[in-house]
Amino acid sequence: MTILSASPQLRGFGPQAAAVLPAARGGAVERQRTACLAMMAATGLYLLFEIPFGSLVLDVVGSAATREQVDRLEWTGRIFTALAVLIVVWGWLFDRYVAGLADLRRTVLALVATAVLVVPVAHQAVWHAVEGVVAASSPSARQRAANAQLLRTELFSAKPRIDGLVLEADSLARPEWKAFAAAAPLVGIAAPHALASVAPGFRELLRRDVEERLGGPARFREREFEPALVELRKAYGAYRDGLAARTAALGPAERQADARWNEWREFMLKVSEQTMRFTPSEVRNLRAKLAYKGLKLGDDQDPRSEGDFKRAVLGEAVAPAEAAFDAKVRDALGTEGALPRDIDTFERFASQGPVQAKMKSLLGLDASTPMLPVDARGAAFEKNVYRPVSESVQRKLSAAYVGDPASFADGRTNGSLGRDVFRASLVPPVALFLSLLGILVHVFKFSNYALILRAQRLPGNAGRSRRGRHLRIGLSMAAVFAALLALSPSTSRLTSSSFVGAVDADAARAMPWLPIAAVSGPIRAEAAIYPVKHLFAVLPHFAAVEAYVRAANR
């Protein structure tokens, strides 16, 4: 986005300037010439990047752009915003220089100091302004933004199925369609009824969107399922390590339990005269003797049973070892639940409830989904894994996109998604609008400085009327812009789409305070000026900016 500086309301520079400049002002004329050349250089350099930036916004947003690319567009736009603010401040500093309030050395130092201060401050100020708008957005507006972005995804799919949207083979490559794709999400946010024409088929759009994201069974297995299996195998390795640690921890205790049981068995054989037969009262005496020796048996444990005896001996040693084992498995799975201690294959491990919960979480499935087999292939994989995943994702999206908008509130299920998609919808159209306005204002400023320099070479007061100069610049810019519109007949092709017409009308009714936000305005303006912007975009100086934005998410 770009904040635009106003053209100095001066015939030349400084408040001392009158409507007509005297033929010669000596040093003041030289100062004015220096200031004009410096401001022309700064404004011209700004335009060299601002003009192609608008083209880049259309090219990126008017395609299947990623969120990361939109984020980089926003960051780059804030840089140009900061530079525009800096040019305003520099204009004020040169006003002081022309008026004789500061010499050239002090002015240069001030230019450097303001550049160091203004650029980061303005850059962050714009970020806070955008974040403030995003934070103040309502859950319903965020839901509409999500819906609009879904339609935008459908627009760039292989076979768009939006009712009333007429597309020719090469339509998406034309600038008016790129502008429409950039502006439509904002219209969807502002006009609650702008999406009404596609509402009946919205779930079908969701299904197609999910299918395209998953990419079919083979691609889903490669991109999602196999990485999930890698995570499960890591968890299985942790389970095996936990078993080994448990065995190592219990080894000495188990040997001690064996030795104590052998001693106790010899005692019982001795007192029973080798018969191992005891009356109930004698069993109570055996239990009391063990308690006297520090070994307490539970009410359900028999002092004559080897298993009960060893469990009682191991009790104190087993508890920490079992707790350490359970903690290791829990950390590996990220979920609660005990596992058997005798699992010897990965397939059996993967069939356990806690492991299935981990797997379903990795794939974005509900816990209620039937068990997922890890060894399924071919048609079995598509039926038992791919289809359940696809249907689960569709249910979630359907509940969010066409259900209760409250889920998009901060802190709710789709709160983060709502903020991100609202920002992604807000940035491109605002950037296009401010970029276009910036171009107009700064071209005006550049022309004004050029005419001031020209007037200094004319005799007398020729060409030095500020009002006449501004009028000539304004009329010339209007003529050029009208010519661009006239030479861009492709901009009228959008009117053949009933969908675009409905969205345009809804936007115009929803936003009377900002008529240019109606789709037709920015579409026509951006489509008309796009050829000029694109000529600047292919110049070498802009290659680094374009490479930075397009390299996102690769």
Give the overall pLDDT as a whole number. 76
Spatial separation of the terminal alpha carbons:
24 Å
Number of domains: 2
Structural class per helix/strand content? mainly alpha
Q: Helix tally?
A: 17
Radius of gyration: 37 Å
Global geometry: elongated
The biggest beta sheet is recorded as: none
- Share of helix, binned: 55-70%
Strand-residue fraction? Answer: under 5%
| Low-confidence runs of at least 5 consecutive residues | 1-26, 513-518
Number of strands: 0
Q: What are the secondary-structure elements, in order, as H or E?
A: HHHHHHHHHHHHHHHHH
Give a quick precis of the structure.
With 554 residues, the protein is mainly α. It is 69% helix and 0% strand.
Structural write-up:
The chain contains 17 helices and no strands. It is an all-alpha fold. Helix 1 packs across helix 5 and helix 2 (67-98) runs antiparallel to helix 17. It is elongated. It starts with 26 loop residues before the first helix and ends with a helix.
